[in-house]
Every structure is written in structure tokens, then in C-alpha cells.
Amino acid sequence: MLPFNTIEEATTFLGRNLTRAETWWFNYSAKKSDYYLYCHNILFLFLIFSLVPLPLVFVELMRSLRFNKYKIQPKVSLTSSEMFKCYKDVMRMFVLVVGPLQLASYPSTKMIGIHTGLPLPSVWEILSQLVVYFMIEDYTNYWLHRFLHGKWGYEKIHRVHHEYTAPIGFAAPYAHWLEILILGIPSFLGPAIAPGHMITLWLWIALRQIEAIETHSGFDFPWTPTRFIPFYGGADYHDYHHYVGGQSQSNFASVFTYCDYIYGTDKGYRYHKKVLRKLKEESGAIGAQSGGTYYVPTQELKSE
């Protein structure tokens, strides 16, 4: 809740006129509690989990020749009932774990200094904080993800997420409840280290989940804007991790690829791409005939 009753009071406090964005924020948030504003995250996550994967569902169901060539694992196809079951499982976990976790974590956001007041942060400030959040989350997530691929972590927790060896958008948040708690830590660390405005927190949570859905989409579209982001993994990169499954000691990155490169955990993927290029050169038409990305047999990957 803003400590101003009128725009005039806010103007006097800032010593200048409010921008259009600040005027909108004042009109929307002035009489709403900080807790109410924070709880918007629950609505945003529900809408993102429900709506963002839908175009991918339609593409998957249509499986037209126009889009089939972008399917990473073209021989794997899920029915509408299978995808709806995945969505129901995600929503069950959302109601039982994600939503309550968001509600319970409000005091920690106040403690670290997430604020709702005026002035609003500049675009540059928001962008710089989002970059910091992504970098911190990516590095921390990398090591926790590697832990979850240990014998105990995988068998007890992470194998649930890997039930989808050919992931779909709805499967991005599909996981064991304990994994949701563990991998929620990296998402919170960035805002804890560099706290900002509530709007920045909203954007961070929304963008991180949209990115996760994109990397689990199962499609490698050439027009995806994220292709222009340096060191960005993307759908093809993460799809390989799911394809190899429990054996995977490769491509642990959540967003960027630099940790996998530095610590040598992208060797299997690079070997896979090398063999793929060789097979395409020898056959001349593997990709054109089958569509999508051709995967090297798992036995070959084990011998690497």
C-alpha cells in the first residue's frame, strides 16, 4: 500500500510529476496491501502454466508437415488425453505446493526488501536486475540439478520430471514436490541478493517460467527470439537431457550453457551433434526424410 492518498501527495514527495507508468501504478496499487500485490504471483503462474503451452499443444496435435520438421523427437507423439493428464498433474501440484509456497514466502520478500512504492524503477534498472537474477539462478540451479542426477536424488526425486523423455510445454513444472522446493531456492536467491520492485519480481517469475516452458516445448523453431541470446541453451539443448534421461550427465543448465562447457558436462551433447552431422553427411537426407532432430541411439551415447 502506498503512503499517499492522492497523486498530488505523491508528486510532492517525488518533487516531480508522475510518469504515465507511475500514475497507472498509483491508481492500481495505492489502496492495495503489499501482501495482496505479492499474491498476484499465484495468478500469473496459473495463467502461464495454463495458457503459454497451449500453442505448443495445438502444434503437437496438428502435426502438420509445416511444423513437424521442427519437432525434436518426431517419432514421439502424445495424445490430447495424455497432455491433459500432464496439465492436471501440474495443477494438482500447483494447488498443493506452488500456491501455498508463494503464500508462505511473503514474509521473506519483505525481509529482503522487495518494495511496492514510488518511484518505479527505470527500464535499465529492471533489465539489469533481471540479468543478475538469471545468472544467479542458472549457476545455482546447475549444481542442484547435478545433485538431483546422483543415485539418491534421481531415484527419490528427479525421476518424476524425467517421466517425459520427449518433453512438452506442460511438463516444464511437472516434478516431485520436493524438487519444486529445492529448485525454488535458485529462483529466490537473485531477488534476495539484489532486491528490487515488486514489478521486477513479477517479471522475473513470469519470464523464468516462460523460459522453462520454451525449453521443454519439444520444438526447435528457427524464429525463436531466444536464439539471439548468447550462451542460451534452448529446446534442442534441454531436450537431449530428457532423451538420455536417468543416464544423463550432460546439459544440466537451466538457461545458459556456460556451466556445462566450463565443467565439461556438455560432452555427450557435443558428441551427439558430431555424430549427427556425420550421419547427415553420409546419408544426405536423414533430417529431411524424418523431420525434426535425429537422435543417436542411446547405446552409442553410453559408449562415449
Outline the secondary-structure elements.
Layout: H1 7-14, H2 20-29, H3 34-38, H4 40-51, H5 54-62, H6 65-68, H7 80-104, H8 106-112, H9 123-148, H10 151-156, H11 177-182, H12 184-193, H13 198-215, H14 234-244, H15 258-262, H16 267-283, H17 286-290, H18 298-302
Helix pairs in contact: 4-7, 4-13, 9-12, 9-13
Describe this structure in words.
With 304 residues, this protein is mostly helical. It has helices at 7-14, 20-29, 34-38, 40-51, 54-62, 65-68, 80-104, 106-112, 123-148, 151-156, 177-182, 184-193, 198-215, 234-244, 258-262, 267-283, 286-290, 298-302. It is built from 18 helices and no strands. Helix 4 packs antiparallel against helix 7 (80-104), helix 9 (123-148) runs antiparallel to helix 12 (184-193) and helix 9 packs across helix 13. The radius of gyration is 22 Å and the shape is elongated. Mean pLDDT is 90; it is low at 285-291 and 298-304.
Distance between the termini: 58 Å
SSE pattern, N- to C-terminal: HHHHHHHHHHHHHHHHHH
Q: Could you report the average pLDDT, rounded to the nearest whole number?
A: 90
Beta-strand residue percentage: under 5%
How many strand segments? Answer: 0
Morphology: elongated
Q: Kindly state the percentage of residues in helix.
A: 55-70%
Q: What does the radius of gyration come to?
A: 22 Å
**Largest sheet features:** none
Helix tally? 18
Unreliable residue stretches: 285-291, 298-304
Helix-and-strand structural type: mainly alpha
GO cellular component, one term: membrane
GO biological process, one term: lipid biosynthetic process
Protein name: Sterol-4alpha-methyl oxidase 1-1
Keywords: Membrane, Transmembrane, Transmembrane helix
